[in-house]
Write a structure and sequence with these properties.
By secondary structure, the chain is α/β, with parallel strands linked by helices. The protein has 2 domains: about 90 residues, Metallo-beta-lactamase, Chain A (4-Layer Sandwich), CATH 3.60.15; about 110 residues, Ribonuclease Z/Hydroxyacylglutathione hydrolase-like (Metallo-beta-lactamase, Chain A, 4-Layer Sandwich), CATH 3.60.15.10. The chain is built from 9 helices and 14 strands. The strands form 3 sheets. The protein has a 6-stranded mixed beta sheet with strand order 1-2-3-4-5-6, with helices on one face. Strands 7-8-9-10-13-14 form a 6-stranded mixed beta sheet. Helix 4 packs across helix 9 and helix 5 runs antiparallel to helix 6. The mean pLDDT is about 95. The protein binds zinc ion. One of its GO terms (molecular function) is hydroxyacylglutathione hydrolase activity. Thiolesterase that catalyzes the hydrolysis of S-D-lactoyl-glutathione to form glutathione and D-lactic acid. Keywords: Hydrolase, Metal-binding, Zinc. Pfam families: HAGH_C, Lactamase_B.
Length: about 240
């Protein structure tokens, strides 16, 4: 089975839309299209036709391009059943434990509530890749808009069961801000200090810093490394106030 081609499309101020292509079947999927035009252009440049949209949660900067991409391509839109009322463009509703297919590749759907109540993630075990929306970021986690620190802690623990090599495709370039906060939580973490320096260089050069990997996050993400939900909640509140 040929590996998925995964393309990062930067849109709006700091969003990343992921274009995912199965070279064997030609199936092409978009994760969380905030907008339509740059996504359609990125697919057209490569001669790909978008067959699917997969949403992780209802926020407009993850679903705003749904209708226009569907109008242009006739694609099928899959997303969280629990948020159907807020994503009326959904054709297929899924929940944790379901499987969704892109050509020859099958993703497991995970329930990861906390940022929003119905937030889901898509894990391609065959490709060691997970699309997490706004649940985990490089050295950070999503804000707790519709859930609790207990839920986010459970999400982090579950992500922590994946292999170090698993690539984590998150939906925002928040890395530098997260790194600067993370070093205040873990001032003695040598790996974290080194990563902050690398991220400062990358951002100064205008480079993207995601996807990240579970191994990098295990070493440097204070939210994944938090020993319990109370500590995660404490540092999340500090970051919110920062
Ligand atoms: Zn969001």
């Amino acid at each position: 089975m040929a590996a998925l081609d995964i393309v990062r499309i930067p849109v709006l101020s700091d969003n990343y839309v992921w274009l995912v292509h199965d070279p064997e079947s030609g199936a092409t999927m978009v994760v969380d299209p905030a907008v339509a035009e740059p996504v359609l252009a990125a697919a057209a440049e490569r001669g790909w036709t978008i067959t699917d949209i997969w949403n992780t949660h209802w926020h407009p900067d993850h679903t705003g391009g749904n209708a226009a991409i569907k109008d242009a391509t006739g694609c099928t839109i899959t997303g969280p059943a629990a948020e159907f009322a807020r994503i009326p463009t959904l054709d297929v509703q899924v929940k944790g434990g379901d499987k969704v297919r892109l050509g020859h590749h099958v993703a497991d759907v995970w329930d990861v509530p906390a940022h929003t109540a119905g937030h889901i993630a898509y894990h391609f075990a065959s490709d060691a890749a997970i699309f997490v929306g706004d649940t985990m970021f490089a050295m950070g986690c999503g804000r707790l808009f519709e859930g609790t620190a207990e839920q986010m802690f459970a999400n982090m623990q579950k992500l922590g069961t994946l292999d170090d090599t698993t690539r984590v495709y998150c939906a925002h370039e928040y890395t530098l801000s997260n790194a600067r906060f993370a070093v205040t939580v873990e001032p003695d973490n040598v790996a974290l200090a080194a990563r902050l320096a690398a991220v400062e260089s990358a951002r100064a050069a205008g480079e993207a810093t995601v996807p990240t990997s579970i191994g990098e996050e295990r070493a440097t993400n204070p939210f994944l490394r938090a020993p319990n939900a109370a500590e995660l909640g404490r540092i999340r509140a500090l970051k919110d106030a920062a």
